[in-house]
């Protein structure tokens, strides 16, 4: 049997299979390939892209010819329209545990391409990078374009409407920092589109999935693999990209505490938290390079050098805290440099920034009352220079940093790159290059296993370079689209895209005049974070208006208990992330990975398995004292009181819903009675 079996019916219909799965169906009535021409307008404003297309022509290619004389592992299909003299040749190939679909020849002046993959009406599809609104992607279109996720992300809410008045910053269900043209199907295959220009994953049709490509689509390659099980499929997916290393063990000694405001304030708050027995692994000082005030609030001064006026004695403090308290320090960096700074002047003089096509000089981008240049990572000298900037943070004593941003703010209309890659192709790729640069810096210093780098942006091969991810800038509220709830499908979708170690800012980040963080929100978010690989706080963009873990002694006491629970789970955390590093199974994983025979699990997006044995159902709405939890068929134990619930499968394999107490500090969490970690979990009943 050939590696690419197909069924061909008199030049009218062809079905192509992959490991007995129907992958592509071409008929005269519904051709698998369409082409066209069009123009696009990309308008960028503070990282928010407003994309308009003028489609000139869209043509179906109804006729086709199959060439199966290329060997057992290759199949070539010409799709054409006789009347238009247009033809596209698509090659299907197999080998080395991988299957590829690629375009080998195009006749005609075209810059739009659509490929339909066969689908079942009830098929579930997951992935697409980091998706905050939907976990099952069926029924929706997802543009693959890096941008700000937006503030509100729901066009029906007041917050989104207000944000849209400023730079169109409200966002939508699909806007994301980490778009990735990767998806997995419950037919047990994954597909990864290797194409960096604008594209769309369209899952809105009942009988097919459509890939839409803009630009020079002859560069497209679609990689596909199958597996007999979900676990095997995820292992195949992550072996394709490369897996994340195990985070450093010191992270499990407590929470990462985000503080700012200078040495005196940081030390004062730290001492207060320690006095109240908060477990702390590290202090994250994002303003180590200085501060600047804007209408958004207090922001970091983007000149990546230590500000000795704000943090006098920083190097000695870093050394002393590590020796006396076993506490590390973390920093902040991104690939942009503020105009007027020493680093900007140096980079500008050496030609290390992305250039403006219209002026031939450094392209300056507005980041919200901050004008900056962006390091051109396609320039080898600029790449090595910025790598040294990162290494200098290690030499100062930092044990990690937030590597913020990526390609979100890269304009496409006026940008010129050193290697002459078109800006429409480099926009998404930049996030991947930024991750690669950070990874190389710590690898060359032999500090991968001791350094904590967290990133929000990604694309393409980013999972193989990124060490840990975080969910970006959520609102400080309980909203579904942009609040605490949204980080759950974000973690699950990114995990099914190959990035398995994820966390979020405890309490969210974005605060507006009408929206401030409450004590309830920060504690609910903290209790969720106990059951993730990393527990990290953020003071937000308006620290003094938001509730913090140190605002009241009672808040600190509650938070201290949660940090103790997090550290108590350290052996289990270690086992979970080691499985992510060795097998690629995400730390926070959908229920169907462990309960594939339960059809209900395929539509659950606000619960997750943490590792193989813990089921977490976070309380993401305010003023809740009880919570409904779905339990798949298994023998479950409630973590907080030891109550056992033996859930028997119904005739169709379904488990059942239960209601549990959900007071703040005791989120709905169950574990499997047969777990090897049962003895550890039983200690939670005792306090």
From TrEMBL:
Residues 261-572 form the Glycoside hydrolase family 31 TIM barrel domain. InterPro entries: Gal_mutarotase_sf_dom (IPR011013), GH (IPR017853), Glyco_hydro_31_C (IPR048395), Glyco_hydro_31_N_dom (IPR025887), Glyco_hydro_31_TIM (IPR000322), Glyco_hydro_b (IPR013780), Sulfoquinovosidase_GH31 (IPR052990), YihQ_TIM-like (IPR044112). GO terms for biological process: carbohydrate metabolic process. Residues 584-673 form the Glycosyl hydrolase family 31 C-terminal domain. One of its GO terms (molecular function) is carbohydrate binding. Keywords: Glycosidase, Hydrolase. CDD domains: GH31_glucosidase_YihQ (cd06594), GH31_N (cd14752). It holds the Pfam family Gal_mutarotas_2. The keyword Hydrolase applies. SUPFAM superfamilies: (Trans)glycosidases, Galactose mutarotase-like, Glycosyl hydrolase domain. Residues 112-148 form the Glycoside hydrolase family 31 N-terminal domain. Belongs to the glycosyl hydrolase 31 family. This is Glycoside hydrolase family 31 N-terminal domain-containing protein. It comes from Ciona savignyi. The lineage of its organism: Eukaryota, Metazoa, Chordata, Tunicata, Ascidiacea.
């Amino acid at each position: 049997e050939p590696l690419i079996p197909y069924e061909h019916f008199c030049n009218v219909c062809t079905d192509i299979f992959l490991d007995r799965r129907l992958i592509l169906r071409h008929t005269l009535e519904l051709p698998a390939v369409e082409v066209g021409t069009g123009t696009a307008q990309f308008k960028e404003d503070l990282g928010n892209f407003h994309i308009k297309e003028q489609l000139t022509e869209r043509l179906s290619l109804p006729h086709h010819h199959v060439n199966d004389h290329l060997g057992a592992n290759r199949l070539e299909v010409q799709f054409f329209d006789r009347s238009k003299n247009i033809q596209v040749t698509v090659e299907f190939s197999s080998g080395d545990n991988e299957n590829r679909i690629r375009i080998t020849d195009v006749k005609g002046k075209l810059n739009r391409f659509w490929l339909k993959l066969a689908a079942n009406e009830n098929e579930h599809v997951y992935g697409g990078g980091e998706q905050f609104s939907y976990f099952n992607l069926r029924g929706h279109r997802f543009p693959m374009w890096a941008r700000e996720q937006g503030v509100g992300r729901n066009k029906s809410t007041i917050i989104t409407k207000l944000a849209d008045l400023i730079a169109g910053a409200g966002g939508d269900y699909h806007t994301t920092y980490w778009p990735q043209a990767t998806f997995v199907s419950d037919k047990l295959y994954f597909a990864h589109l290797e194409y960096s220009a604008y594209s769309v994953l369209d899952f809105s049709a009942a009988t097919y999935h459509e890939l839409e490509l803009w630009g020079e689509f002859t560069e497209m390659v679609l990689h596909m693999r199958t597996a007999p099980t979900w676990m095997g499929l995820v292992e195949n997916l992550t072996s394709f990209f490369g897996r994340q290393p195990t985070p450093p063990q010191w992270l499990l000694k407590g929470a990462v505490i985000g503080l700012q405001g200078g040495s005196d304030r940081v030390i004062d708050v730290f001492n207060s938290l320690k006095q109240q027995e908060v477990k702390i692994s590290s202090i994250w000082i994002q303003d180590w390079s200085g501060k600047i005030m804007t209408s958004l609030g207090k922001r970091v001064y983007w000149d990546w050098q230590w500000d000795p006026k704000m943090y006098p004695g920083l190097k000695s403090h870093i050394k002393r805290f590590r020796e006396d308290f076993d506490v590390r320090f973390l920093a902040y960096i991104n690939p942009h440099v503020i105009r007027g700074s020493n680093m900007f002047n140096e980079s500008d003089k050496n030609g290390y920034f992305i250039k403006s096509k219209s002026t031939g000089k450094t392209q300056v981008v507005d980041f919200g009352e901050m004008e900056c240049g962006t390091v051109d990572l396609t320039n080898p000298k600029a790449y090595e220079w910025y790598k040294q900037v990162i290494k200098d943070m290690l030499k100062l004593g930092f044990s990690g940093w937030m590597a913020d941003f990526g390609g979100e703010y890269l304009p496409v209309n006026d940008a010129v790159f050193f290697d002459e890659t078109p800006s429409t192709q480099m926009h998404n790729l930049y996030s991947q290059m930024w991750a690669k640069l950070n990874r190389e810096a710590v690898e060359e210093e032999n500090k991968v296993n001791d350094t904590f780098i967290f990133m929000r942006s990604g694309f393409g091969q980013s999972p193989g370079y990124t060490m840990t991810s975080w969910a970006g800038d959520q609102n400080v509220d309980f909203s579904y689209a942009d609040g605490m709830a949204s980080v759950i499908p974000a973690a699950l979708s990114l995990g099914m895209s190959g990035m398995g170690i994820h966390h979020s800012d405890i309490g969210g980040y974005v605060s507006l005049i009408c929206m401030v963080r409450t004590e309830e929100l920060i504690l609910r978010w903290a209790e969720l974070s106990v059951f993730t690989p990393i527990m990290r706080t953020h003071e937000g963009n308006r620290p003094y208006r938001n509730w913090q873990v140190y605002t009241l002694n009672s808040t600190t006491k509650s938070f201290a208990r949660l940090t103790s629970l997090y550290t108590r789970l350290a052996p289990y955390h270690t086992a979970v992330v080691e499985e992510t590093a060795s097998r690629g199974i995400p730390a926070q994983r959908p229920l169907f990975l462990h309960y594939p025979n339960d059809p209900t699990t395929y539509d659950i997006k606000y619960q997750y398995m943490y590792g193989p044995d813990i089921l977490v159902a976070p309380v993401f709405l305010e003023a809740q004292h009880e919570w409904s939890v779905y339990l798949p068929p298994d023998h479950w134990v409630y973590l907080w009181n030891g109550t056992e619930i033996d859930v028997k499968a119904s005739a169709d394999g379904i488990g059942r819903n239960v209601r549990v107490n959900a007071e703040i500090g005791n989120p709905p969490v169950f574990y499997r009675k047969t777990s090897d970690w049962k003895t550890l979990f039983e200690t939670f009943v005792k306090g």
